[in-house]
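Hi all, long-time lurker, first post. I run a small reading group and we've been trying to get comfortable going from sequence to structure in the token notation. Rather than ask abstract questions, I figured I'd post a concrete chain and ask someone more experienced to write out its structure so we can walk through it together at our next meeting. Sequence below, copied exactly:
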Amino acid sequence: MTIGESTQSHEPRAEGPWPQAAATPEEFAELLPRTRRALLRRLAVGQAEGRAPSMTGAVVRGGRTVWTAGRGSVEGEVVDGDVQYRIGSLTKTFVAVLVMRLRDEGLLGLEDPVGRHLDGTPVPDATVAQLLAHSSGLAAEARGPWWERTAGALRPEPADLFGERPQRHAAGRRHHYSNPGYALLGALVERLRGGTPWDEVLRNEVLEPLGMRRTTLRPEQPYARGWAVHPWADAVLPEPAEDTGLMGPAGQLWSTLDDLCRWAAFLLRGDERVLEASSLAEMRTPAVPPEGNGGDAGYGLGMQLLRHEGQPLAGHVGSMPGFLAALWTDPAEDVAGIVLANCTSGPAVAALAADLTAIVSEHEPRIPEPWHPLPGPLDPELLALTGPWYWGANPHVLRLRAGRELELTPLSGTGRLSRFRAETDGTWTGLDGYYAGETLRVVREEDGSVSHLDLGTFVFTRGPYAPSEPVPGGVDPEGWRV
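-- Answer (accepted) --
Happy to help. Here is the structure in token form:
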């Protein structure tokens, strides 16, 4: 049969601590029987209708694995969470985290042209961010025969990855998925880590701290064999599992359900030993518009974005000959769904993993964390800034959050909501929405009292168009009238 369904909420294994969760005990409780059955049925239908030799799935909630199950078998044996599957382009999320670590250390900027750090690239003026978001214009695939089914030795040098026309679009103009672009990012990691291969950097800086000791560049027993399933008959054909060499950063990794549960928990919450939650949130921010008719999809920095049943998800799907993988996180619900299968095509694993998150969110919505007062001491000047402010006649409220963060919310039902991060110079920087990256500053009178707020040249005053307020263009001297 199958990996049996695990109905226990459990702690991760001892290798590497997981992020501490400030959540109520109810969030860590075992899933309800009705939820478990719905999850198991969804996975079973996906395996049967998709005709996958084996399929495993898991749900992570509150930083912990709360459900795992599987159908089918590997080499006639029961599958468990320690069996490796090839995860294809899920590899790209790992490479993107390595690049973001370099950015956070100050070794590169996301807007740096890649040619500043790598010699001989076919797109020297494309930025690091454009490579991460697949908007560099590079070709979708490597030169030569189908790179996923041929040995990397066929392309021993970086120049061997690109054909006569390596760039198909102008950089920054559109989203065009590029596997060779991630080969360049792997080379970038190697270059800025003093020549250490990207997979060794990954092992030392990411996998070991997170306890992911069964995520490897090449398969290690026990692992699943990859199969192609005949489209018109219930027959299978073995697929090759080549070492793709320089193309490895695009899709080489093998991993297990247990390890990917650790990865999902990290992507949701961050880990200061690897990457802060704020940088992961940046990776989830749309960097390019969706391509074609994909109005419910997009791409961030190494993260695919999806809107599933109205809920925004972030993660990635992967495929290599003989394997399919999908991992989606729902940060609002603090839940993730993971699916692995050992077949080239058939099961819709992307939709299946998204459904796992939706089932849990529908059956057992997240319990909010307890409210607590802000940690002291409280700055009276910041407290005095809170309350109503007006952009013209449009009322807003400014609230004080943890870490001196401010939140500006429209009260009229229309307007622009944004959060603002405190800076050392006494200003704030917008984190999201229309004001992302814009500067909020408090303008004071000569006596030090607050005059108004300046937000990217927009003036917010304490009264709606009061004659005494410094409204650009002035206020009619007769004031409001009926």
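A couple of things your group might point at:
The CA atoms of residues 459 and 471 lie 7 Å apart.
Residues 6-27 have pLDDT under 50 and may be disordered.
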